[in-house]
């Protein structure tokens, strides 16, 4: 079957002879219909994030249809449309038992610690597949995972109804944070140097925080760019006593003095993915009851054969890129 692999640092290739997955007793086989691209995939491609082996199957934001279920799986059936929750916590370690599965000591992550989901068929632990209605637009379905990250960040921020929230960076994650802020009753403002991305943020309902009025600050700031200089800038824009949530990642240090932290009584909090099962359950329920349409943040759709081009262009196009796979619902024998 076909799979999109990293063959060497910065070289992505579609291979035609990747082995078929085998279905463990607690797993399901999913025919993948679409996979969104995000920053962590690009970090794997560039080599900033190392993976256990090459070639390596990329991707983690996947949806599709169940083809087969393992012998111990009673609550999933072939034909069901599902979104994959691509982080598989162990559910038995201390953090997992405390409900903080993002901090799992043995978390497996598709595309990072094990092969990714950008293949025609993948095996996934059944409990990490989430049924979604067939009627939902696939553009919205492909955004469920990154939207769950965004909603988690907004929840962690303690945003209250009517609060102004500065979102630093309007890449795909920043755009989804803007939607999550709106959904939570807040007012999102964005800072984004890329004009196309900024325009997209305004189109989905955010306001521009520029030009800046001297002295303007925000009770909640969510940093999504991962650029240390942007983080430093973000610190200056939090109101005294306010909260700064970091979602973007960089291994380069950002400066923050304890004088600033203490005198201005800031809360700075890092926010990593989501907890199982609450995160996905909440997002899917929210999509079922509100007209959020997260698919509005998508801009570029590529075919499977165009995957190398999709990865090469993903950091330049405004909005989120995704790859659509052909519907090959029968298992290759
Ligand atoms: Zn992602
Ligand atoms: Zn665990």
From TrEMBL:
Iron-sulfur among keywords: no
Q: Which domain of life is it from?
A: Bacteria
Question: The Enoyl reductase (ER) domain covers which part of the protein?
Answer: 5-323
SUPFAM superfamilies, sorted: GroES-like, NAD(P)-binding Rossmann-fold domains
The similarity annotation says: Belongs to the zinc-containing alcohol dehydrogenase family.
Q: What is this protein called?
A: Alcohol dehydrogenase/L-iditol 2-dehydrogenase
Alphabetically ordered keywords of this record? Metal-binding, Oxidoreductase, Zinc
* Cofactor dependency: Zn(2+)
One annotated GO molecular function is:
oxidoreductase activity
Residues spanning the membrane = none
